[in-house]
Amino acid sequence: MNRLCLITVGVFGLLYIVALFLLAVGTFGLFGQERDPLAVLFLIPLGVPWNLLLSDFSEAIKPWLATAAPAINLVILLWVCRKFSRAS
């Protein structure tokens, strides 16, 4: 993979990990933090467009799918980077 692809995938992966950490802190009240229902706010933009397709799923599974949606984008980024690095 070329350098720009590695940086892009790395930054996206780091943002995903930070957003998951903030979700855990806000949801479970870790480190003395109050519980915050808006803790998922940093995770939602990373999962677009998949988060927009969740309206047909049940309410019980939506939080899990919204949490996993950025992983789909990360896999797509990795696939595109590998595809283009082999082509050039």
Explain this structure.
By secondary structure, the protein is an all-alpha fold. The chain has one domain (3-87). Helices cover 59% and strands 0% of the residues. It has two helices and no strands. Helix 1 (3-28) runs antiparallel to helix 2 (62-87). The longest helix is centred in the N-terminal third of the chain and has 26 residues, at 3-28. The chain is flat, with a radius of gyration of 15 Å. The N and C termini lie close together (10 Å). The mean pLDDT is 90.
Strand content: under 5%
For the record, give the distance between the C-alpha atoms at the N and C termini, rounded to a whole number: 10 Å
Instruction: Give the ordered list of helices and strands.
Output: HH
- How helical, in percent, are the residues? 55-70%
Based on secondary structure, the structural category is mainly alpha
Shape, please? flat
- Overall pLDDT metric: 90
Brief overview, please?
Helices cover 59% and strands 0% of the residues.
Question: What is this structure's SSE topology?
Answer:
Elements: H1 3-28, H2 62-87
Helix pairs in contact: 1-2
Labels describing this entry:
88 residues, 2 helices, mainly alpha, single chain
